[in-house]
Amino acid sequence: MFNRAVSRLSRKRPPSEINDGEGHPSSSHQTLKGTSKWATSLENLLEDPEGVKRFREFLKKEFSEENVLFWLACEEFKKTQGTKQMQEKAKEIYMTFLSSKASSQVNVEGQSRLNETILETPHPLMFQKLQDQIFNLMKYDSYSRFLKSDIFLNHKKSEEQEENSPEAQTAAKRASRIYNT
């Protein structure tokens, strides 16, 4: 059963890895940057370090920053090599986010909680079900409020001001003249 789950998950690729037939990214959002890209999906927001920073800032104000921290820790955990390192990181994630004594406990369904004994035999996807729960919680709750927040709207406004600045317009005109000759 575990092998089937790993094989199914390995077929799912994040948007950043989906290419057209020639190996170029096929995302229709290729040219979008910053807040415009963040507004298209939570996945795009979480792929951008600046987006994660702003989202964390927002979640901190909502007293739910632990959700994105847990999600990020799980992403890092999946990249961990070696049983010993995996055991150490699994225990750290468990003690920080999942234990009843956790300092930054995430709110996951009771039946989904891990038993501490599973930490002895870790595998890259051991937190996947919990990570998916937290992702969905953020996607359907926090993310939509983030897009309406002052943090997001002010950052979007500053991006638009930068784009409309005389320096940016001059650079765009120069580029236009160079490439259209």
UniProtKB/TrEMBL annotation:
<feature type="region of interest" description="Disordered">
    <location>
        <begin position="157"/>
        <end position="181"/>
    </location>
</feature>
<dbReference type="GO" id="GO:0001965">
    <property type="term" value="F:G-protein alpha-subunit binding"/>
</dbReference>
<dbReference type="InterPro" id="IPR036305">
    <property type="entry name" value="RGS_sf"/>
</dbReference>
<feature type="region of interest" description="Disordered">
    <location>
        <begin position="1"/>
        <end position="34"/>
    </location>
</feature>
<keyword id="KW-0343">GTPase activation</keyword>
<feature type="compositionally biased region" description="Polar residues">
    <location>
        <begin position="25"/>
        <end position="34"/>
    </location>
</feature>
<protein>
    <submittedName>
        <fullName>Regulator of G-protein signaling 10</fullName>
    </submittedName>
</protein>
<dbReference type="GO" id="GO:0005737">
    <property type="term" value="C:cytoplasm"/>
</dbReference>
<dbReference type="GO" id="GO:0005096">
    <property type="term" value="F:GTPase activator activity"/>
</dbReference>
<dbReference type="InterPro" id="IPR046995">
    <property type="entry name" value="RGS10/12/14-like"/>
</dbReference>
<feature type="domain" description="RGS">
    <location>
        <begin position="41"/>
        <end position="152"/>
    </location>
</feature>
<dbReference type="GO" id="GO:0008277">
    <property type="term" value="P:regulation of G protein-coupled receptor signaling pathway"/>
</dbReference>
<dbReference type="GO" id="GO:0005886">
    <property type="term" value="C:plasma membrane"/>
</dbReference>
<dbReference type="GO" id="GO:0005634">
    <property type="term" value="C:nucleus"/>
</dbReference>
<dbReference type="InterPro" id="IPR024066">
    <property type="entry name" value="RGS_subdom1/3"/>
</dbReference>
<dbReference type="InterPro" id="IPR016137">
    <property type="entry name" value="RGS"/>
</dbReference>
<dbReference type="InterPro" id="IPR037879">
    <property type="entry name" value="RGS10_RGS"/>
</dbReference>
<dbReference type="InterPro" id="IPR044926">
    <property type="entry name" value="RGS_subdomain_2"/>
</dbReference>
<dbReference type="Pfam" id="PF00615">
    <property type="entry name" value="RGS"/>
</dbReference>
